[in-house]
Amino acid sequence: MDKPTTYNSRAGFRCLRNIKRQTNDLYLVHCGHQQCPPGYTYNHKTPNENHLHFILNGKGTLTINQKTYHLKKDDIFLIPKSVHIDYAADMDDPWEYIWVTFDGEMAIDYLNHAGLSADQPVATSGIPTASYLPLIKKILDSNELTFTNEIKRVGYLFDIISTLIDAQSELKGKKNRYDYSSETYVEHALQYITLNYKEIKVSDIAEYVGINRSYLTSIFKKELNVSPQEYLINYRLGKAAKLLETSHLPIKDIAIETGYSNPLNFSKMFKNAYGVSPKIYREQSE
Fold first, then answer.
1. Which of 48, 207, 217, 218 has its CA at 20 to 30 Å from residue 142's CA atom?
2. SS3 153
3. Number of other CB atoms surrounding residue 245 within 10 Å
């Protein structure tokens, strides 16, 4: 039987334990905030989940895989699953930290995106660790046993992890390092073009999929052997050709329908692509 969720609050310590699982991708188990007394030590049992700590103030040491780290304010440390660790607060300047304990099918992937793993359990935070405190407080404040609070806590956990990934990526200069394959970006770009080809520019496509225009051009040429601009023009003109074949719409209306406000420009582009004017193309299709 699962242990009941418990909430403890006393001077220098708040903790919410044994939180009921709500999702399989990522779920919260524990969460807390502690101001440690001088020399406070913890010999951690081999954990079944990932424990992520954010040091708010003070100093301490972490020993993991027989390596000792000397940590301070604005450092982050991970206690990975199935790894034994010891940590201790400094005698003169004991640390204060917040933590979240979590697991799920995507937990390791998310941590890897933040640059944290069993091999790299320590990092300097890309933003002040105090930035995470409001989210931890929201979890702790949602301690009453209600279905609404269960959902809220999962949302706050996702906020913490997404903030972590973004901050650590910025710190490591990975602003233009993209998380997905070129095929995935191209697939999403093509879907966007299909739905919005009348109004969009290449810069709109790049912004929608979350990459810069230069990279978008590179992956289009790699995957489709054309630039995004060429693909967009060909897509619009293909739609125009279909309308010329199957409808009696005036050519100027077809131009507007396929994203060309200037019928003369449309006719020029169409002739460049199909070798004949829209009028002749329609006549030949009858």
1. 48
2. helix
3. 12
Interior CA angle at 173 toward 167 and 175, to 5°?
Answer: 75
List, for residues 43-97, the tens digit of each pLDDT value. Answer: 666 668 899 999 999 999 998 888 899 999 999 999 888 888 889 999 999 999 9
12 DSSP 8-state letter: T
What is the side-by-side order of every strand in the sheet holding 6-10? 6-10, 13-17, 27-35, 96-103, 50-57, 75-79, 122-124
CATH number at residue 35: 2.60.120.280
**SS3 category, 268:** helix
Task: Please answer whether residues 258 and 250 qualify as being in contact, where contact means their C-beta atoms are separated by less than 8 angstroms.
Answer: no
**pTM for this prediction:** 0.62
Domain with 265 in it: 182-285
pLDDT tens for each residue of 133-162: 999 999 999 888 788 888 888 899 999 999
Q: Which is it for the CA torsion 102, 108, 109, 112, positive or negative?
A: positive
Same domain assignment for residues 124 and 83 = yes
Question: What six digits make up the tokens of 214?
Answer: 């230069």
Same domain, 111 and 81: yes
